[in-house]
Fold these 2 entries.
Entry 1:
Amino acid sequence: MSEFPSLPKDLIPSDARFGCGPSKVRPEQLQAVVDHGIDIIGTSHRQPAVKDVVGSVREGLASLFSLPEGYEIVLSLGGATAFWDAATFGLIEQQSGHLAFGEFSSKFAQASKKAPWLQEPTVISAEPGDAPAPQAMEGCDVLAWAHNETSTGAMVEVVRPEGSDGSLIAIDATSGAGGLPVDMSQADVYYFSPQKCFASDGGLWLAAMSPAAIERIAKINASDRFIPAFLNLQTAVENSRKNQTYNTPAVGTLLMLDNQVQWMNEAGGLDAMVARTSANAKALYDWAEAHEHASCFVSDPAKRSLVVGTIDFDDSIDAAALAKALRANGILDVEPYRKLGRNQLRIGMFPAIDTEDIVTLTKAIDYTIEHMA
C-alpha cells in the first residue's frame, strides 16, 4: 500500500508533466520524429535533407519573433551554458554588466568574472523572488539579464535602458522565449535553449541576433583574442547562414523543435502563445493567493513569470512530501529548484501545457494536502 493518498481519476491532469525543463512534449512532436526521422536521422547534417529542417526552424523562429530587418537566427551546440562561455570569448569586448536575481542570471556574471581577458563585470543583484530593473552600466559594452529566471519564477522585461547606447543587450531567454512577450528590437542577442517553451530536447542554443551583435562578433573574431573553435560565435553565424551547425547536431531535437515552432505559428504566433501562458499563470496565481496555506514566492505581480510558477507553503505543509505524493500519482516534476531550498513547488506553465491541466493540478494539490493531513 502506498504511503501517499491516491488521487481520484478526475484529479489527474490529462497530461501530468509540469517540469520547468525538460518540459511537456506534445505527441505530435514525437510523431514528427517517427514520420520524418526515418529519412534523415543517420544522414549527413551538411546535406539538403537535414539543412532543410534547420532552415525551417530558422524561418519559423524569424516569423514567430517578427524579427526586425537585418536580424538573424543563429544556432550552435551546447545549450545556454555554452553560450555564456562563447559570449565571454566572442561577444563581450571589454566589460559586461549583469542583472543577477537567481541561479542562471548569476552564472553568466560568474563566467564573465572568471575570464581573465575581460574587466571585472558590474553586477546589480536582487534577492531570489525579486529582480532589479534594467539599467545602463558605465563602461559595459554588453548588458545582460534573464527574461525569465527559471530558478525563482521572476521575469524582467526586455528593454533598452536609457543611456545604454553602445551597449549590446543580451537576454537569456531560455525559459521565456516563445512564452513571454518580447519586442525583439529591444535586444541584440536573445538566446535560448529549446527544452522549455519549445518542448524539445536540450543540447542546442539558438539566438536572435541584431546587426550590431553580428558586427561585434566579427570584430572580436578578427582580433588577436584566442577563441576556442567550439565556442566561436563567428563560426556559428557563418554555419547558420548555411542552415547547418559547426558540429553534428541531434536531428531528433531539431525535428521536435521544428514541429513545435510550426504549431506555435499556426496557432496564432507569439501573441497566441502568450495568451496561453497568461491563462495558465492566472489560474495558478489566483489559486495561490486565495489559498489558506500557499502564497506566490514572487511578491510583485508584475514580476511573476508567465511560464514558471513558484508557490510557497507555510510551515504546516511539507512541500517536499507534497511533491512526492503528487509524483506517486503520476504528477511529475513540481519540485522546487534544488539550490533554492524553499518550502515550495515550482510549476511549468509553458505554451504546450493546457490551462485545464493547471486547474486540475491545483485541485489535486488541495486534495493531497487534505488527505495527507
Entry 2:
Amino acid sequence: MGGTLATGAQLQAAFDAAALDPAHPYIDTYTVDDDLHLILPPRRPNGYGNHSCDPNLWWIDAYTQAARHDIAPGDELTNDYATSTAIPEFRMACACGSPLCRRTITGNDWQRPDLQRRYADHWTPGLLKRIRGSSTPTAAQP
C-alpha cells in the first residue's frame, strides 16, 4: 500500500486541510491500529478502488489485500470499506448493486456481527483487535 502513518489528531488535521483545498478534496485512509491510520498518497491504484458490500478483495495483513474468490479478467477490484475504517463520523451512501448492499457504510460497521462472521480474520489489524476485544457489538444491528 504505502503512505503516511498518522495519529487520529494528525488524520483530522489532514481532513481539515483537504476540506480547504479544492485540488485535493479527498483523502484515502484506513485504520491500522487504535490511534494509527495510513494515509495513502493521491493517485495510487488503490485510491481508485471502489467499495462493495460483497467485495472480491479482503485484508490478509496490515498492508495487503488478496482475492477473496476468483476474479475474472476485467472485473473491477473492490473491497468493503467497513473492513478498514473505524472513524465513527465516516458515512457513505452505497449503491454497489450487491444483494448484500447495506445502503449506508459507516465507521461503526466493524461492530456488525454479520460482517464479523462474513470476513472472519480478514480486517485491518486495528479493527481485528477491536473485534476480538469486544464482547458485544455496540452499534445498531440489522
